[in-house]
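User: Mind token order:
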Amino acid sequence: MIQPDKSEKAVSPLTGTKRGRGRPSGTPQSDSTREAIRQASIRREQYKRDLRDPSPEAQARVHAKVYLTPEQVARRAECQARKAQLDREWQWSQARIANLQPVRDMASALISIGYKLLAQRYHPDRCGGDSAQMSLLNQARARLLTLVDSDK
């Protein structure tokens, strides 16, 4: 009886394809895919060796991330640029908010001063006062304060 070669993978009785890890059984693997997998494996092994190697050259390679493909390097650079842009926009918005705080405080003070003066004039308990006008004054004050405080 002839013994099967141990280096070959067993053939699945259901699909007739070789069993193994990776892609779904029955799908062919292209040469470019095999080459990409091989290159990734080489980079991964070199990275592992450099992590164990204390020499300055190896540590410089680890720090420089030379194990990435050009596409990965471009994508990381794009992501870092976008993050830096978002950080700048956030800092700008925080500075803008900080610069607007004195304006908000002044607007609130003006609204309060104007309300007090008009409330003395239109209060129903005062001579010439009217509850309808006082109600309108309270609504106007509430809307103005909402506009001033809504930008926070």
